[in-house]
User: What shape does this take?
Amino acid sequence: MPDTTRLWWHDAVIYQVYPRSFADSDGDGMGDLPGITAHLADLRDLGVDAVWLSPFYPSPQHDAGYDVADYRDVDPLFGTLGDADKMIAEAHALSLRVIVDLVPNHTSSEHVWFRAALAAAPGSPERQRYIFRDGRGPGGDEPPNGWRSTFGGPAWTRVSEPDGTPGQWYLHLFDVTQPDLDWDNPEVRAEFLDVLRFWLDRGVDGFRVDVAHGLVKDRDLADWDYPDAGPWSVPPEDNRPPMWDQEGVHDIYRQWRTVLDSYGPDRILVAEAWVQPISRLTRYVRPDEMHQAFNFPYLFAGWTAADQRKVITQSLADNATVGAITTWVLSNHDVLRHSTRLGYRERLRKLSGIGVGDPQPDVALGLRRARAATLQMLALPGSAYLYQGEELGLPEHTEMPDEARQDPTWFRSEGVERGRDGCRVPIPWEADAPSYGFGPSDNSWLPQPAVWAEYARDRQNGVPGSTLELYRSALRLRRSHSLGTGTLTWEDAALSFRNGDVRVLTNFDESPVALPVGASVLVSSEPLDADGRVPTDVTVWFTT
Ligand code: GLC
Ligand code: MG
Assistant: This one.
């Protein structure tokens, strides 16, 4: 790293709070800011360094708050701006940093700008904040191009002009209620610089930047013909997607970086960019751009020694070329929880959306591997993100009744894709309380499965061998051995590496593996066998 001074985010473990589902203070079934504030001490006690909160801004909630109607306020569902200030102050008092979500690719269709755009004429300044175009074909009846929405269906919707006649089309790479902004418009750029300052002035320590690879589109809005356009496709350099990962996005982040730097070196930007290969991703963390970028190739890598070793090696090497740290992650609010993803023996092509009637995961296998995966991740140099509930070993709710689903993916794909609700279920704090202690009532905006009792925090607290205690031990040891700022050296053919004085071994083999003579175990994701060997799907940290 070029930076000789150690900054908090170089090795921080950051806990993602999904406000809707973390803790409900008022019993309406929706998590809220006072609920979060009340539980910050539990996160301090878990041993994380920071929290990242998914959006809590005013929003019609068509995409769970990623459809923002006002970037400078709090939705009454979650509380008030005063509650946000209290949450930030309480976090800081506990030495926890706070990262908030910034959604710059699109606004809600309820945002004043979009309402004004609908009321104004084609070509007006109000329309030029978004991407309005005339349709193709006779009468402009066909969308301007064939782009598809990420949630299913076309990426264009036609509006009625103020006089009632069929009018122009607007682009939405996500839901129809999430119109894309036009980042070529200087007014859009100025607005977001101001939004950054608004939250920096309130004391936040950084921003997770939603869809960071999407803001700039190819000027010609060229059609794109690529058979496998899923997030994991790696299109060839000469056929790059015209809507993702355009060169122009980097200018935006360079400008944002100067704003953050003017507040000192401790305020950070973290990119949510679904970009492959890793060498394209590291362009977002060049020294004058963002600080971190989620390493999704790691999240999605196969559970084999070879795949893991390859992705870890590549991540560290590619990030080093730009002097960046690597930012590890295994779960978030958009993908299957890793305890479920790893409960399938075949590598899943799906990122989310398991439901009733689908092949179900092997829950025990998934949890065992998830614990091994997390213990491996927390031994790697760099920063790491945890998603609320993973410290309890929570599985995905894979049998949620379809009637309960709320993700726009489910509706836009007309039930073909079940969507992401399964990882967003309110989390259990107390086994025997209403809504498992999520709130004071039985209400919960998504149904909680009956198995939640056995995962509740109070059932695991202080219980040796529980997932909660495993996370606590790992976070404590990671800190005391400075693993986050360490250097990784591979030791042999199996997945085994050294980081400072700590040696780490994950056993992917069918048979148990012996530790070197004189090994002293620091922590292990499952008990060793009777002969002191490391069983299959187990990670161990040890010293010799
Ligand atoms: C990001 C968010 C996701 C949201 C989408 C549109 O991928 O993580 O939850 O639906 O952006 O804002
Ligand atoms: Mg509430």
User: Anything to note?
Assistant: The mean pLDDT is 95. The pocket of alpha-D-glucopyranose (ligand 1) is lined by residues 63, 66, 103, 174, 210-211, 272, 333-334 (CB under 6 Å).
